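Recap for those who missed Tuesday's class. We walked through two folding examples back to back. For each one, the amino acid string is listed first and its predicted structure tokens come directly after. Nothing is annotated here on purpose, so try labeling regions yourself before you check the end of the notes.
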Amino acid sequence: MARRIDHTLLKPEATKDDILRLVEDAVRYGFAAVCVQPWWVPLVADRLRGTGIRPCAVVGFPLGGTLPEAKAYEAYQAVRAGAEEIDVVVNLGALKSGDEDGVRRDLEAVIEAAKPQAAVKVILETALLTEEEKRRAAEWAVAAGADFVKTSTGFGPGGATVEDVRLLRSVVGDRAGVKASGGIRTLSAALALLEAGADRLGTSSGPAIVRELPAPEDAASDEKAVP
């Protein structure tokens, strides 16, 4: 479970001490990545060096309407600072306008700036999209070269849902990963999203989720109790 979690803190008021606690928790529980605002990437990358946990930066966050050149430069600088993953917000206005060329050009600029050093996840903000727009966004993201499609920023009107994760998995198949994020606070919610097809979970509640898991001796006792 822990290796499926991107331990996340994107609140604008987060302090250095908050970020250091985030990193300490990530190391303690063995999470997959630590996802922060670009400002904190040098600190996070330094503290995570040698742990196998990947520093992750958000780009064009949280609205997605930044110019492609600005997004690309932001991604480039984040990678130079040590980011190994980039979570970029799709241009929602272009997407909802049906502007495939604009959306793909925007994402391709970021992907070119980030790779091969960093994987790129495209945040779709599914709560603002129709079902057809979700399908279209996932297809365009994969066509642009994205490694993952991601449900939400956590700053929009809704977060990850089982239905959206299942839909995105059906669209991307095995061509890309699916990251569920936004509002994931319990083990039951995390398990439901993984069952629906998520590869990664973006959450600030990773420690609480992992602590809900049964201890190894409890799991062994449960197995023995099954006839």
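Example two. Treat it independently of the first, because the proteins are unrelated.
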Amino acid sequence: MKLLLAPDKFKGSLTAAEVAAHLAAGFRRALAGVEIDELPVADGGEGTVQAALAAGFTPVALTATGPLGEPVDTRYAVRGRTAVIEMAAVTGLEMVDPDDSTARRATSRGLGELVAHALDHGATTVVIGVGGSASTDGGAGMLAALGARLAGPDGRLADGGGALRTVRTVDLGSLHPALATAELVLASDVDNPLLGPRGAAAVYGPQKGADPSAVADLEAGLAAWVDALERAGAGRARELADAPGAGAAGGVGYACLLLGATRRPGVDVVLDLTGFDGRLAGVDLVVTGEGSLDEQSLAGKTPMGVAEAAATHAVPTVAVCGRSTLTREQAADAGIEAVHALTDIEPDVSRCIADAGELLEQLAGRVAAQRFAPQHETVDT
């Protein structure tokens, strides 16, 4: 019997690696002689670098600019000439106490510093996971860190989406030279455009603390940013503002597309980086999961990506989670044969969060009993 454990994090409780470890402990107690492969994964947001490290990448530590301009200790992952960068680890929303002020001031500059560092050290492929961002600056801070020169009416332009309303000129002539040949991969499931009612400010601004006035100012700033780039002769600046994914990460998606990035679903990128397909050989069951399984999960979150990839090799998938609002039919349509939630064994959500590890081990035993008995000898738990 061989199991492949490929969960995402349980946000607020456990990292993906911790989820996998607790599941493994529970399955080993429940199934005599079971072979287990632990493969923590992510969807391009928080945990992407950790997933790469668990798959054999090497960490690169450095200090970069945080979401509000403060120095933060962060890291990215590298293997050969491929670098994996996680926006949430340097300019993430969880690094701030969001309100209308932080929504206006937050910058993507630190992300650009990580990309520049990776390019300086020989990376020719840079994967940029953009989930969990704090900023709505259209990627202006990222481009500034990569050599772009932005100016306002008095020659200086502060960082942050709020300041973009006053951008007058953009000079892209001094962008990092390695960008001309590097392959950039935008790991994102977001298909929103940059502007308008489905744009970065309108849809995601409130999640980042923006009140209605701040949303309007951020929208105006993003529009001014597009105008300035178009005046600067940036190729397809107007067209790319309407492209799917331009609104990802407060418009960082737009800046990445301007640099020639290819947009791919985050979980697909992570599964490729971790060698998921190659680890399916001989596997009887894949176990995936995340903290909450709901309708948002159906739009390309980790469990659905894992199930889809496993199905191409005819390997069944079950999911574990803290709670689930999916119907059995919705899960089945996504390729998940069964969903097992912590709330199935502990209805108190606060305890599910506090004792997630212990409950996951119990849940693994339940999955083993339901899935494999009596075909396989089980151990009394």
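Answers for example two:
The chain has a mean pLDDT of 93.
The first helix runs from residue 16 to 30.
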